[in-house]
Amino acid sequence: MIKGIGIDIIELDRIQKSMERSGRLEERILTQNEKTFFDQLTNKRRKVEYLAGRFAAKEAFAKATGKGFGELSFQDIEVVADDNGAPGIKVRQFQDSTIFISITHSRDYAVAHVVIENN
Fold first, then answer.
1. Percent of the chain with pLDDT over 90
2. Does residue 113 carry a catalytic annotation?
3. Which residues contact 53 (CB under 8 A, 6 or more apart)?
4. Per the residue annotation, which of 3, 35, 90, 105 is the catalytic one?
5. Is 105 annotated as catalytic?
6. Which of 47, 58, 63, 113 is catalytic?
7. Where, by residue number, does the polypeptide cross the bilayer (predicted)?
8. How confident is the model at residue 83 (pLDDT cuts 50, 70, 90)?
9. pLDDT at 76
10. Binding residue numbers for Mg(2+)
11. Which of 79, 72, 32 is nearest to 53 (CA)?
């Protein structure tokens, strides 16, 4: 049974400007594992896409819970990749749920869609 559905869209320019302004956005959004991967990226555009995709994924997940970020933080949600590069989400408080995620990018936007299903 579906427990929740969430979607989020973010402008890549907004993420890029925030990264240039403070340099702290990635610290706030990314878990340590995500940050390690982010730091290995050498292409500036790819870094923006990666961070925007993680931001959108975490926002979409929070919306799918129906609670937003009241009980969760960005650090509670980790976007992982399987051996083929397909995204998944790990959230300690949702180990009893199956979580489906899709992340996409265009020239101007990153979008993420999340479905949470009860096991």
1. 85
2. no
3. 79, 103, 105, 110, 112
4. 105
5. yes
6. 63
7. none
8. very high
9. 94
10. 8, 59
11. 79
3-state secondary structure the chain: CEEEEEEEEEEHHHHHHHHHHHCCHHHHHCCHHHHHHHHHCCCHHHHHHHHHHHHHHHHHHHHHHCCCCCCCCHHHEEEEECCCCCEEEEEHHHCCEEEEEEEEECCCEEEEEEEEEEC
Only one residue has tokens 């979580």, namely: 99
Residue 3 predicted with pLDDT over 90: yes
Interval 27-68: pLDDT, tens:
999 999 999 999 999 999 999 999 999 999 999 999 999 988
Give the torsion sign (CA, 90, 22, 68, 101).
negative
